[in-house]
Structures are given as C-alpha cells and as structure tokens.
Amino acid sequence: MRAQVFHGPGDLRFEDVPWPTPGPGEIVVKIEAALTCGTDVKVLRRGHPVMIPHVPTVFGHELAGTVTAVGAGVATVREGDRVVAANSAPCGACPPCLSGRANLCEDLLFVNGAYGQAIALPRRLVSRNVVTLPSNVPARRAAFAEPLACALLGIERARVESGQTVAVFGHGPLGCLLAMVAASRKARVIIIGKAGWRFSQVQGLRIGECLDATTTADVVAEVKQLTRGRGADVTVDATGVPEVWEQAVAATGRGGTVVFFGGCAPGTTVRLDTRQVHYDELTLVGAFHHTPDLIRRAVDLLESETLDPDGLVTHRMGLADVGRALDLMSRGEALKVLIEP
Fold it and tell me: Each residue of 2-38: pLDDT tens digit?
C-alpha cells in the first residue's frame, strides 16, 4: 500500500509499505478519512521522542475507516464495522489510570499511521480506544473525535459553566474546538487571534466573538474592556507560546481559571505575577491529551450534532499531498485538511 512515512525531522516520504495483517487481538482498518493536525506540523519539524519513539513509521494520528480484518480473540468489532480509533491507549493499571486520569498514564501507548491506506491497530488500542460509529456519522466527521476529546478535557479542567466568559488565545483548529465546546455549554466565547486568511475563516464560522490581537497594543486590556474590567472567568492558551501563556494569566478575572492547553517547547519558562495569582485566587491548570471516556463522549457529540466541526475543514487532498497539506497549515493557510486515501 502507499503511505506517508516519517523518517525523522523534515523527512517525510511517500512510499510503498506492506499491507498490514492483524495479529492476535489486533484489527486492520481501511482508512477512509484522516485529518491534519498542528501536532503533525511540529513533529515533522522537530520530531517527538514520546509520540514517535521509533522511525521510520507511517505518519498521522486522526483517522476513521472500516474494519477489513480481525485478529484472533477480537470480540468487540467485526469485519465491515465502521470505527474511529484514538491515537493512544492507556494501560489501565497504573496509579493515574486507577484514579480516573488515564490521559496521564505512566505507560501510554501512542499509535501513528493515519496517512496510509490502512492501519493495523494493536491489541491494547482495540480493547480500550476503538469506537464503533453510528451510521449517521461520516468518516470525515468521525476523524474529529481525537482532537475534540482533547478539547473536552481542556474545557472540563476549567469546569466551564453557563454564563461564564471564556477567552481562548489562539485561533487554530484546536482553539476553535475549545471555543465550540465552551459555547456548547452556553458560555460567552472570545477568540483571540491575528489577522490573516485563517482568522477570516474563523470569523466566518461565528463560534464566538473574535478579537484581532494586531489591532491593539494591549490584548489583556482589550479582554478586560470586553468584560467590564473584570477579566475572563476562564482563559485558555491554545498557542504554546510562552508570552501568550503570560497574557492568558493576566487576562483572567478574580477567582478565575487559566488552562494551559498549548504545549511550549521543552525547557520553556514563563513569568507569573505572584500577587495576582495569590490574592485573586487564580487556578492554573494544564490540560494534556484525552481519555477513552472522552473519545466516546466526543463521538456522542458528533452523532447528535450538538457540535459540528465540519466548517474547520478548509481543504481536501489525496494521500500523496500530505506534505503540501502540512505546509499549508504551517503557513496559516489551512485549518484542517481532509486526507482521503
């Protein structure tokens, strides 16, 4: 079969690889839809020792498709089932897993391979993080389950409630999904981004109010002006830029919560106004990845159309064009690109 194979930072090759066959407990899924992700852009640029511990490997991690082969002992799915697969599987036995925080699993198994015609899913993933799709959810929408589950975790970490104001710093696809989840909880949403093609696309989606950071010398003051001087009840950084982490803290009102969703480069530090954090009783939380429960809840939201992310797909391309799709994303000229093998 044909696949996009990651050989190391900056080295993505469109190659022939063997068609997968399932071992015991495994399944093979013919991929019908894959989505590009900002994480793919970062990993292609600098690698990732946890998500991609071995190279070469087939790249990509957001996918949906149809089961074409089932290994011995698999009882949860059968050939012909339409499924969505998460990109990881927790062990279920370590202290974080047993305490309900499987996203922090001490032995989290990552799976890549969305940018190929088919993928063999390992036993642990099949048993914990493969979800059968309802008939009314097309593969192109189901592939959003993984990033949507990440956004659900971020908003749940903040305990967002109806009537609150949520300021999302970053207007990329995950910033938009975070905003959509907050809006689905009837929160007021402010998306902070920068003028350009992608920002115009986001404005057209009407997820929430959009603040162009390039039109003001003080983004924090602008957020406070939009909130009658209080600041937002919840701020979320979806950029992974340390200066924006600091802006998110500064723009949070008394008793508010800051969610650090966007991951900064290793070794990054940020400055905190300790007086604000202490006397305003701010809650600062990180948000990483997703859990099997959140993957299922994401599929439920997509099935019910409580949340419709279709507008985030700005381009459709074939498998041979993944490199060009990721380049468009890196230049801010695409939100999500649908890859149809």
Answer: 999 999 999 999 999 999 999 999 999 999 999 999 9
Q: How far apart are CA 126 and CA 140, in angstroms?
A: 21
- What is the total residue count of the chain? 341
Alpha helices by DSSP H, listed for the chain, are 38-46, 95-98, 123-128, 139-142, 145-158, 173-184, 197-205, 219-226, 242-250, 274-279, 292-304, 322-330
Look at the chain and report how many structural domains it folds into. Answer: 2
Residue 280 resides in a domain: yes
* 94 lies in the same domain as 161: no
Which structural domain, as residue segments, surrounds residue 78?
2-144+309-339
**CATH number of 194's domain:** 3.40.50.720
